[in-house]
Amino acid sequence: QRRQQVGVLRGVVDAVEHHVLERDAPVELRGGLDHVVERVLHVDRVVDFDPHGEDQVENPDQAKNLVDDDPDSGWQTAVYFNRVDFGGLKDGVGVILDLGLVREVNEVRLQLVGAPTDLSIFVARPTRSSLPTNLSQMREVASLNGAGTDVVFGLGPNTRTRYVTVWLRSLPEISADQFRGEIRTVTVSGR
Fold first, then answer.
1. How far apart are CA 191 and CA 169, in angstroms?
2. CA 1 to CA 108: how far, in whole Å?
3. Contact 58/48 with Cβ under 8 angstroms?
4. C-beta atoms surrounding 138 within 10 Å
5. What is the tens place of the pLDDT at every residue in 53-87?
């Protein structure tokens, strides 16, 4: 009886997920529970992303801190002066999350330090097998201006990728005419 209840639950959740549940409509039971359940996805590695910088690095030694389970560590941009837009030197900087393999990504959750921050989420095509080296190799799937410290991006259906990029476009002020972005944690959820 328990197995039958689980099967019915799987079918109902699957039908709701695919927007086909109608009154008294038959529900096709398929797939395992893994097909339905969204979970936190493993991140194989985190790489700093500074395609517009002279040296093309932005605190690379800190990137791994985003997924180290320590809420007090994180990744910071360099300090920029006089303007929120990286001192007018570049369009932005960020980090690339390598999921190790192509996954369906439904949500990106961030814990930032300071506010406001303008940021976007980019993803590479699912066919891409190497780390992107510039924004033209990805597409923007979410964007937010004036973000606070807790940010959740819900991504559209069927967002499949191996590489998720968090791209900072504007930085919070840390002292008079000094601007720096900081991400403490990042969590990617999906299937």
1. 28
2. 37
3. yes
4. 22
5. 888 999 999 999 999 989 899 999 999 999 999 99
